[in-house]
Every structure is written in C-alpha cells, then in structure tokens.
Design brief:
Number of strands: 5
Strand content: 25-35%
Helix content: 25-40%
Structural class: alpha+beta
Number of domains: 1
Radius of gyration: 16 Å
Distance between the termini: 9 Å
C-alpha cells in the first residue's frame, strides 16, 4: 500500500491568472486530480466507488499559499489520507516545485462519503479504509517522502 502519493505535472499557461502566477482555483482542481489519482492507484476507480455505492463530496478545502507558481514550473502534489472516521476522510497535501523542492502550498480537504442515490452521508467502506495506510501528520509524511518507505 502506498501511504503518500505524488502527482507531478507541468503548469500550463492556461493556469495563469491576471497576476501572472497560478490561479487559486487551479490549486483546488489539482487537489482533486491528485486525490483521484491516489485512490485509483490503489484500485479505487470511479467504477469501484459506484459498485460500492459510495462516492466522495468535498465539505471543505483549506489552502495555505506559500510561494507563487508559474507556467512551466514542474509541481509535485504529495497527498495522503490523514484520518478516516464514520463518513469522513481528511486528506492532506504538500505542493512542492520539482528540482528545488520549494514548498509552494500546504492544503487539506475534508471529504464526505455519500450514497450516490440519496446524497446522504454513509460510512466509509471498510475495503477503502484497509486499502490505505493513514499518515496522521505532516512530519510523518515528510519522513516517508524523504526515505521512500512507509
């Protein structure tokens, strides 16, 4: 099982706002992309969620923007699941610039598991919980990234 997942990409020109750096809304889009890629890497694709009668909706996103990013920058979204309880999962992210490993942003999302038919919260499937190693804090995530092991 992979506890910390890295989603890397090059910032396109279309992500740049009127201030000449990455638009704030792009960070949220990329958070979702990283989360989706992480769960898919462990077999939790959209089809599997549908089969399990469980989908995720975001309740809150929090982002601390630390440094600007620009078109052509190679960014790495490091993401992990910090906690799962009842119908909730807290996912965290560190965004770094590849090469110099400069920390660009720190973020988290509180995801709510819902029944796709009713839209009502439901307990996170046990099979999902067992597919991921939880990483409760950023220090542990950094240790995993530095050593390459969980």
């Amino acid at each position: 099982m992979r506890s910390v997942y890295t989603h890397a990409f090059t910032v396109p020109e279309s992500a740049i706002d009127v201030n000449g750096h990455v638009s704030n809304i792009e960070y949220v889009r990329w958070m979702q992309d990283a989360a989706t890629a992480h769960t898919a890497s462990e077999g939790w694709t959209l089809d599997r969620y549908r089969e399990s009668r469980a989908v995720w909706v975001a309740r809150t996103h929090t982002i601390d923007y630390l440094k600007p990013a620009f078109a052509g920058d190679r960014l790495e979204y490091h993401t992990w699941i910090a906690s799962v309880k009842d119908c909730q999962s807290r996912r965290k992210y560190l965004v770094t610039r590849a090469g110099d490993r400069l920390l660009v942003a720190r973020a988290e999302t509180l995801w709510i598991c819902v029944d796709p038919d009713t839209g009502r919260p439901k307990r996170v499937p046990e099979a999902f919980v067992s597919a991921f190693d939880l990483v409760p804090d950023e220090a542990e995530a950094m240790r995993i990234l530095e050593t390459g092991s969980a």
